[in-house]
Write a structure and sequence with these properties.
With about 475 residues, the chain is α/β, with parallel strands linked by helices. It has 2 domains: about 260 residues, Rossmann fold (3-Layer(aba) Sandwich); about 210 residues, Rossmann fold (3-Layer(aba) Sandwich). It contains 17 helices and 18 strands. A 10-stranded mixed sheet has the order 5-6-4-1-7-8-9-12-11-10. The longest helix is centred in the C-terminal third of the chain and has 21 residues. The chain is globular. The protein binds adenosine-5'-diphosphate-glucose. Adenosine-5'-diphosphate-glucose binds next to strand 13, strand 14 and helix 14.
Amino acid sequence: MDVTCLVTNPLVVVTNREPYIDEKIGSGIRTIQTAGGVVSALDPLLQEMGGDWIAWGSGSADRVTAPRGMREVPPKHPRYRLHRVFLSPSEEQGYYTHYANQGLWPLSHMLVERARFSRRAWPIYRAVNQKFARAAAATSVPGAWVFSHDYQLALLPAQLRTMRPDVAIAHFWHIPWPAFPVFRLCPQYQEILRGLLGADVLGFQTSDDVDAFLHAAHRTLKAPVDFDAGHIVWEGRPVHVRAIPISVDFDAIESLVRHPRIARWTGGIRRKLARRDRILGISVDRADYTKGIVPRLQGIREFFQRYPERRGQVTFLQIVVPTRSEVQEYRNLYHQVEEETRRLNREFGDDDWTPVITIRRHIDRARLMGLFRAADFGLVSSLFDGMNLVAKEFVAAQIEGRGVLLLSESAGAANELADAFPINPLDAEGFASTLHEALNIPPAERHARMERMREHVQQHTIYDWLQSILLALSEVSAAYARE
Ligand code: ADQ
């Protein structure tokens, strides 16, 4: 889908994470393009249209390649400008590690006992948001469209609006929006709401998130809310609050898995599995407590206990990439996953069969999609998850329609992938029997379920998501022009 024709005004993207990161490797510098849905949708668009991207310059060589904060990217064929916001170690701690990752992240995932809000971190979070807002204000030409992202930058929309009332602002919240009694536990919840309401368009993953947000705005700020239209009047301006579910690039995934090199590799995996009469299940997550990795291992233990005939037959491949290792809880989780896995393998495995194989690193995307294609089932067991792109990637990669998907009902993707087998990550017995049921359905049904999900993902791609945002921005711009 070509969305370039929708970009009628200069576009400024603002994210915490940068699309290109420069790292010192030995005596040289390596530029790495960061992965993820947002980068994969917006980088090609900016490459085509030009524009500006503002992000935290977190790479070890970022200041070398952009001494004044700006560098053109992609490095070999520059097409747009990347503006790096540099943070001091204490800014990084207060803004990123503490307020965003130890406060807003767990609270938004309703894991209230993990959330910590320190009085010291809050002014730093606010000041860093202001830094990003200043960079966006300085970069935006009159009437520009600013597209900012996520819980790290919740205050930016209002800060930017104060500096630049002429720009149209869309902000997308990638994670769940919690129910009001949970959200209220954030000591600065009113400021967070006011910050977000500086946007013209607020995007959330699901209609539940939209409802919860509208409810919070109504309760807290007494703002007039039209719940049906998803519309708030705030400081005399309309704010459009919409469910715009993020997705994947279906065609790109299909062509990756059809590539002869990957197809050969995938074929090799299938032949090995067939020779040993094995079934392969796969899960892929950042090592984050919201992803329900330990509960999933408990479900797997229950499965082998209840269905001993499956021992020696089903292998779980879990790809767990370490993340946010500056936070103690994440390091603990990582060890816990390793410990649980070892215990399970000792209990059930033998010389010939390892029930759970763990890969602890980032995997090349083409191979990752190849693994999805080769697998007999995919597992997503998040406790809460805004969307979960892995579920959609698994579906897009399953070109033979061989696999089944077990999907947590608490992931946003469950609203769309109705043919997945729903699981409750906290119900180990339920997980075991659902997996048993899923593995026993006839191939024709498996195929039909996967086909229906594939059709859905093919019709709702990352470009549809982007198109909705761009259309909303152009409506806002048109309304500004009429004023
Ligand atoms: P995340 O919490 O990071 O995103 P998710 O949506 O699953 O979660 O995206 C993870 C991405 O990283 C996927 O594209 C996956 O393939 C990739 N990935 C993970 N582990 C990998 C590994 N070891 N090797 C290679 N690639 C790996 C947040 C929200 C989600 C929301 C997204 C997008 O928490 O709910 O879906 O943003 O809005």
